[in-house]
Write a structure and sequence with these properties.
5-stranded mixed β-sheet; 458 residues; 5-stranded antiparallel β-sheet; single chain; 18 strands; Alpha-Beta Plaits; alpha+beta
């Protein structure tokens, strides 16, 4: 499916076969314009993808304007493994802005800032199928202006449950004096963003998000959870850690690397009861935006306060609810609960703690692969091999983990054997496939550690 040329776009071919687009008076060079980027259910070239983004530029740019952007680059298309690039490329055009961010690791990076359609086309040419802005503006890099509520359904959780949790979230936001702006995630979940005054640090905004997640879990315990560890979750997870510093989620009008080229699409609240995320793709969204406009156009006019939500957090803490686990690359925080999954915890019974004891879950890893479809195929082979065991599994006993290293991503699939009689539980076998891109690095680190230990004993 070839995308139509966007309004105001002019193009010409260069001697090297690149397409030179004139976007709002700026030239953007699209290299390898005919390179396939989607080739399963839909067929889109790189140039088609650029033209989609130019067609939705008013909405897409509004979601990333004046924000540093992490470049998630699918240089070989949506079916291949992407990599993350924080640092702005050296050969960028002089009109493209950058800003220097610092990270929890202590490192810094000069990141791209996109302010217009030309900048949008330029980063899409780099292979950025998705757009990943930070929750801050360039004028205040320490205080987010957005509370991000990420509704992440577990395996087997229905879209209807996602919508029900979304409406619970709307009700709570209304009570707190905050306006929520919903959009499909472009996959199975939903994002609700609330514009806030940039008066609070990342730590404070995450604290507010954790309190929000816990309150929704209290109101809808059968379908919502705030539990960080997948083995403890039920239903839709409200991922409070998406508000931690250095975390990003795809923004409005982002294309997702799914076979149907699905789009993370802004919605009106009235659309949620009847909407289907599969209806929003690169085929349909440009016409939708042209017809009804951007449902999130007024978001910047609705900045609210976190005071009431932080008061709720204080009440939770006074009642004995401490901090919940942070992402693994963050330093250990004061008051944070254990950062070890319950199934891997050792010696917990010997430690005095006010928290109730956790049950160690019988988890095994069945697949590791940069290709999610290959990992899922490995799961089916495991189920066929262990058919009697698979018959005991509930939908949420299969844990599909999106793993992320410094510059690579992969899918890990684990199975929770809690519903399988102990005598019938199979042992941990070599995963099939077993392609963890970080293994070589981890094994090298372990060898170096053993060498240092032996040198110290000599």
């Amino acid at each position: 499916m070839a995308m139509k040329r966007a309004k105001g776009e002019k193009s010409a071919k260069s001697d090297e076969g690149a397409e030179i687009l004139s976007v709002d008076g700026r030239e953007v060079r699209i290299t390898h314009p005919e390179k396939p980027y989607f080739s399963r259910e839909v067929h889109l070239t790189k140039l088609d993808l650029v033209r989609y983004y130019l067609a939705v530029a008013p909405g897409a740019v509004a979601g990333i304007r004046d924000r540093p952007v992490v470049l998630k680059r699918f240089v070989n298309g949506a079916e291949a493994m992407p990599f993350y690039q924080k640092r702005a490329p050296e050969g960028r055009p002089p009109w493209l802005r950058t800003v220097t961010l610092s990270f929890p690791s202590g490192r810094t990076a000069e990141e791209v800032v996109v302010d217009d359609a030309a900048g949008l086309a330029w980063i899409v040419n780099l292979g950025c199928i998705e757009l990943h802005p930070h929750a801050v503006r360039t004028g205040n890099l320490d205080c987010p202006d957005e509370l991000r509520i990420d509704l992440d359904p577990g395996p087997g959780v229905t879209w209807d449950d996602v919508r029900r949790v979304a409406m619970e979230a709307k009700g709570l936001l209304d009570e707190l004096g905050l306006r929520g702006w919903p959009k499909t995630s472009g996959s199975r979940g939903m994002h609700i963003n609330a514009r806030i005054q940039p008066h609070w640090t990342f730590t404070e905004v995450r604290r507010a998000a954790l309190a929000f997640s816990r309150e929704i879990e209290r109101r809808a315990p059968a379908i919502a959870t705030s539990k960080w560890w997948k083995e403890e979750r039920r239903g839709v997870f409200l991922d409070y850690n998406q508000n931690a510093k250095d975390r990003t989620t795809c923004s409005a009008y982002s294309v997702r690397p799914l076979p149907d080229a699905r789009v993370s699409t802004p919605l009106e609240w009235s659309e949620i009861p009847d909407c289907d995320p599969a209806d929003f793709t690169t085929r349909t969204v440009p016409a939708r935006l042209a017809e009804i406009g951007d449902p999130h156009a007024a978001m910047d006019d609705a900045a609210g306060s976190l005071e009431q939500l932080l008061e709720l957090a204080a009440r939770d803490e006074a009642a004995g609810l401490g901090d919940a686990p942070w992402p693994p690359h963050f330093q250990k925080m004061d008051g944070e609960s254990t950062r070890v999954a319950p199934s891997r915890a050792k010696g917990a019974a010997k430690k005095k703690t006010a928290a109730p004891p956790r049950t160690k879950m019988p988890l095994i890893v069945v697949a590791n692969s940069p290709d999610k479809s290959a990992a899922l195929a490995g799961l089916e082979r495991w189920k066929a091999k262990h058919a009697s065991v698979a018959s005991h599994l509930a939908a949420d006993d299969v844990l599909v983990d999106s793993m992320r290293g410094r510059s690579s991503t992969w899918t890990r699939i684990r199975v929770n054997l809690r519903h399988v009689p102990e005598a019938e539980r199979p042992p941990q076998e070599t995963p099939d496939p077993d392609d963890d891109p970080t293994r070589e690095w981890r094994e090298a680190m372990q060898r170096a550690k053993r060498k240092n230990t032996s040198d110290g004993d000599a």
